[in-house]
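cron nightly-structures :: item 1 of 1
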Amino acid sequence: MLKSLKSIFIVEEESPKKPTPQSASPAKSSPKTTEKVQQPATAPKPTTASDGKVTPKFTDILLGAMEKVNLDGFDYLEYKKSLQSLLKMNAGMDEATAFKSAYAMAQTMGASPTLLVNTAEHYMQALKTEEEKFRLALANQQESKVGNKQKEKQQLQAGIKDKQERILHHKRN
């Protein structure tokens, strides 16, 4: 399950320059749904390193968090997986047709636009929770690494000043 979830996000991160269905051609049956459902797919920005490449450590953390809150039944993750499968299998299929086909399949599995949007928001909330955990861990690391170094620097400067005063006092005597 983790590998299938991983493929959902890695493909998305590797090809951010592809036009979304909003820019290609909106689906006639539910254009608002397509836009809302696709927004979460581009949101996992914390998985990139400073050089813009996907880092396995953060990807695994995010995917683990998503797995913990995975909902039963057909939801946004399954919709996204079926969409990616369609895009991989049918290289000649345009994105608009792939989105329509994936949505038609989702409907046969009992999914509705509201369900897809709600479950996408559910997973986005899980990612936001992980982002907050990351921010707290970062703040703690900065305090322990940078803060401690600053304290050490201040102590060394105070020690230097004290020794300079001793030297000056000793020279005077």
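cron nightly-structures :: done
Helices lie at 2-14, 21-24, 31-38, 56-68, 76-89, 95-108, 113-172.
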